[in-house]
C-alpha cells in the first residue's frame, strides 16, 4: 500500500518518511508541503526518487491512506481533501478546537478517520490502563505530568488531555478540556484533575499519571526517546485504517485493546 504524508517537511513528517524508507510493505505516494513552499520540486533526502509537492499534485488514485502531521491551521482543508478523495486519514495534529472535532465527526461519515494525539503503542495502552485503574479505585486523586522539548507549542499536550479524558471516563467524572490548565495556588478541589507541564531541551515526550488516595499511590508512566516510535505507530495505524469502513477510530481500535481487555475480564 502507499501513503501520502502531509506536513512532510516537519519533524514528524521527516520521521515518518525515514520509517517508510525502511518498509517493504508500505511506500510513500507523496511528500506534501504547503502550497508555495520553497521545497516543492526538491528531492526527498530519504527517498531521492520522490519530490516534495503540494496537495494538488498528489496522485490520489495511487494513495491508500493519509498520515497528517501538519498544523492545526491545515486540519479543515486536509479533512476536506480526505473526504473528497475517499482516502482514510490518520490525523496526528494536536490542539484541535471543538469545531474541528465536530468536523472530524462529519468527515467520518464519508471516510475512515483516526485522530491520534499520540501514535505510540505504549500511550494507547497507558490510556486504557488509566481508565481501568480509575474505574477500580474509589475516591482517588488524579494528577497528570508531561514533559516535552522546548519548541512544543500546546500545553498541556494533547496526550496529557487524552489521559485526563481516559481517567475521567473510568472515574465517572465530567471533564472539559478547558479545565486542562496547570494547577495554581489553593487547595485541591474534589474531583479535579491536576496538570504539570515542563518544556526543556530536546525531550521527545514523557507522561505520567499519579493516582493517589490516603495511604497509597500508584504511578503509570511512559517515556519516548526516539520519534521513530510515533512514526512506526502512525504507519501501523494507516495500514489498519485503509481497510476500514467510514467512521471515527482510535489507536486502541488498531491495537485491539478493547477486545483484549474483554477477554481478560471474562477469564
Short description:
The protein has 267 residues and is of the alpha/beta class.
How does this model look, in words?
With 267 residues, this protein is of the alpha/beta class. The protein folds into two domains: 2-115 and 228-259, NAD(P)-binding Rossmann-like Domain (Rossmann fold), CATH 3.40.50.720; 121-224, Dihydrodipicolinate Reductase, domain 2, CATH 3.30.360.10. Helices cover 34% and strands 25% of the residues. It has helices at 11-21, 75-84, 98-107, 121-136, 158-171, 228-241, 251-255, 257-266; strands at residues 2-6, 27-32, 43-44, 47-53, 65-68, 89-91, 112-115, 141-148, 193-199, 205-213, 216-224, 247-248. Helix 1 (11-21) packs across helix 6 (228-241), helix 2 packs parallel to helix 3 (98-107) and helix 4 runs parallel beside helix 5 (158-171).
Strand content: 15-25%
Number of helices: 8
Structural class: alpha/beta
The span between the termini is 38 Å
Tell the overall outline.
Answer: globular
Assign a percent range to the helix content: 25-40%
The side-by-side strand order for the widest beta sheet comes to: 3-4-2-1-5-6-7-12
CATH topology of the largest domain: the name is Rossmann fold
Low-confidence stretches: none
What is the helix/strand order?
Answer: EHEEEEHEHEHEHEEEHEHH
User: Average pLDDT value?
Assistant: 95
Largest sheet: 8 strands, mixed
Q: Tell me the CATH architecture of the largest domain.
A: 3-Layer(aba) Sandwich
CATH class of the largest domain: Alpha Beta
Number of strands: 12
Radius of gyration: 19 Å
Instruction: Tell me the name of the CATH homologous superfamily of the largest domain.
Output: NAD(P)-binding Rossmann-like Domain
